[in-house]
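ESCALATION

Customer reports they have been waiting on this structure for their group meeting. Please prioritize. Original submission:
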Amino acid sequence: MLRPASTRWFEVLCPRGESVRTVTELARTGAVEIELRDETPADFPVQHLCEGLGVYATLGSRYGRYWERGRLRRQVLVEAPEAVLERALARIEAWRREADPLIDILQSCEEEAVRLKWLAQVIGKIVDRDLDFAAVARSGPVLGTFCVVLPKDADPHLPDWVIQRPIPWGDEFCAMILGPLDRLDAVKHQVQLVKGRIIERPPWLRGDAREALARIGARREFLATRIVYLNAELDTLFDELDLGDALGEVAGLAWFADHVGGLERAGEHLVWITGWTDDLSGNGLRAALEAARTRALLRLTKPPAGKRPPQILDNPPWMRPFELFARAFGVPDSDEADPTPVLLVVVPLLFGYMFGDLGQGGVLLGVGLGLKRRWAEARLLVLGGVSAMFFGVLFGSLFGREDIIPALWLHPLHDPITLLAVPLIFAIALLSLGHLLSGLSALWRGELGHWLMRDLGFLVLYLGLIAMVFRPALGWVALLGLAWYAVGAFMVHRALIGALAAIGHLLESVMQILVNTLSFARVGAFALAHSSLSVAVVTMADAAPLWAGILIMFLGNLLIIALEGLVVSIQTTRLVLFEFFNRFLRGTGRVFRPLPAPPAVVQEAV
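Update from on-call: job pushed to the front of the queue and completed.
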């Protein structure tokens, strides 16, 4: 588990006519990344379909909202891609001839419904005002009116010969405009230049404001009913022409063109599908190809010379949420240690120490258990909650109160020195482990000798300096580490100047690791802060009447869980990424990017 696994190179030989189908089935497994071998003639199975696929894409941008209402059925691709695309475009054209008139009417109804919604909002603002809407509705043929809604800071520079009547409209400026009918088009153009919205009054709208609202309401109900019927007619037409089958098949071709494009030619009638897979045994890929009854041959073999395999983290499912931290730093290369098994212990311990409370930890545990089915990373919250409960028992804290359960270890505010010292001891062990993991990486790179001669001396120096703080007589350990490092550096570089440069690097590294060690004091500091905030909430609750005290305890604990939970999570992540990982992890591995899944076989109807 400590060493990342390298993906394996796979090669699939299949007939050219089945290449799209075969790639689709491989992609459905989510376990392949397509990559061509270098200096090989490429074959583009759908290149001759680019024009047709372009037509499909154009039609999709125009009619996609109507197609999405239907039921897309993508069947197994057994015919030649050109035959599938030709049939699909023919069915789309037949659908267009009958659908276009319906769509024109539908869009007109939708646009009118939106305009009437805006107009109803405007008239609703003036129902109880002194503006005579009936007089406005009778304007003409010399005068005309319309409403305008503008951004608050917009200035359309309206001419002096129009009359504006402002209408209350929230954060925007709304007004009713009255002016000569034959000159209002120029005013509308000025409004549009500043991105204003024009609301016209339909000719059939008469009466005062209340009567106008009633007329608008009746018209909107009619439009809503007509829109429903028009959509139903389009849905029926979609099914009658079996457009779902055609669109589903051509969607698969478009996916192939977008995400794959070219494959390797293997003669006149065959192609190679090559790349990387994280199915290290190949059993999953073979099963997928056999289930689809493809005429394809699969083999796992050595990658071509110069190809660098992507890396995957090989951990059991229950440990994978902790891969989040390593991936944030970068995927470990094949010669780097995967810190995930270590983080399974380190992250909950750091979180729980800073957030030690039995009750609040139980809340986090419950939230994590509720979310883990939908969100795999919620398992971090589960273990963090368990750890917080454990330290809550040690600290004697239950929802911030320290007078309900006894502390099995200490109360944070009663013994702050111990509380701050323990994380520093933990830091020494953790940073030393990080240094040992760098030695493991050196072993995998074949550089263990260099690590033993120089870097192990650095570790001895670091531990010697720490030991001197407690027992000055142990200073000889630090001197031993310094001498070890200096001699080792000279032996590695075989030159005095190289050894001197290494000494300079040593001084910088010693300062860095000592600062990293002191950084863990913040773990104790945040534990103190958490305890102090809890005591403040409890003190306010005890000083208030019973009902108010209960409310303060409830709201206060919610605030602590939300605020402290976020802060503690950030600090845990920071200590792991910037203090621990810096000792051994470079994150230089190549990321495995599997081919995106093709369109679903069936899309349920709306």
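Sent to customer with the following note: The two ends are 45 Å apart (CA to CA).
Escalation resolved.
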